[in-house]
Amino acid sequence: MLKLIQNEWMKLWHQKATWAMLLILIAVIVGFGGINKYYSVKETRDWQTIEKENIASNKQIITENNMNEADAAYFQEQITISEYRLAHDIAPPQDATFASFMDFSVNLMTFVTLFAVIVAAGIVSSEFSTGTIKMLLTRPVSRTKILTSKLLLSFLYGLFMLVVNFAVVAIVGLILFGQGAGVQLELVNGVVQEVDVWGDLFEKAYLSLGNFTISILFAFFIGSVFRSSALAIGLTMFLSYMGTVIVLLLSKYSFAKYIWLAHADLTQYQTGNIMIEGSTMTLSLTVLAVYAVIFLVASYWSFSKRDVTA
């Protein structure tokens, strides 16, 4: 199995598209960091003056605007936090910092998922389109092992790109922004407290792995069954970006809570913006696990039982 994976890894990196995706990722990170640094405006006023202005502005917004309770509560929270800063002499983060720039790496996980999906979608279908499937199946190795090596390679590539993503963002962030100064605060149950920036970042990152995993499995399933990388990539990306709209349209039906699109984004449990009312983390993980099994079973059945001659 290890040799099969090594072989798939070498084949992958012999493709120009693989290097292109890596370079694009690095270019996006460096470019975004450079733009942020270049266009960042250095605040010359002291932070106390700014906080006092924020308090006055937020009070005026609450008074003059006919807003709902949720919006009014938000602006009141900002007032409370600003008043707490002034009372305890706690400066806010003034400029972009290493920690704030690292948040960009989590947002880029969707971008990285796209690259992993491209690999997963074409890793089987390309063998048929190029005719190399004949040579591959002449080896004294079961089809199950061959397909498993391709599946593992898809995840390995995705994980490799995630590591590159976080590493490059960290390097660029340290070079351009440094550690920075100031403390980020939030209001929790009426109590002002310091935000655990790194804890929130880590939580958001591992929750994002839900969409990362199910997207790769779905693309691999479509590519294996229909032998079309274009269909697999297009359909996976369409469902990823339009999933929220689809779920909202179907949310009035009881079966909507069993659609994997409603559970792929596990960060909804961190933000509190639950797509389907009544959904829980346990339900989401269960639904995703069931669909993962379905995608895998269909992929292996199709590759093992159907005519695979080119």
Explain what you see.
The protein has 310 residues and is mainly α. Helix content is 73%, strand content 3%. The chain contains twelve helices and two strands. It has a two-stranded antiparallel ribbon with strand order 1-2. It is elongated. The two termini are 24 Å apart.
Overview features:
12 helices, 73% helix, single chain, 2 strands, elongated, mainly alpha, 310 residues, two-stranded antiparallel sheet
Question: Poorly predicted ranges (pLDDT <50, ≥5 residues)?
Answer: none
What's the average pLDDT?
Answer: 83
**What order do the SSEs take from the amino end to the carboxyl end, as H and E?**
HHHHHHHHEEHHHH
Structural class: mainly alpha
Strand share of the residues?
under 5%
Termini gap: 24 Å
* Biggest sheet features: 2 strands, antiparallel
Quick one: how many beta strands? 2
Strand order of the biggest β-sheet = 1-2
Shape: elongated
Task: Round the Cα radius of gyration to an integer and report it.
Answer: 24 Å
**How many distinct helices?**
12
Helix-residue proportion: over 70%
Pfam family, one: ABC2_membrane_2
Protein name: ABC transporter permease
Keywords: Membrane, Transmembrane, Transmembrane helix
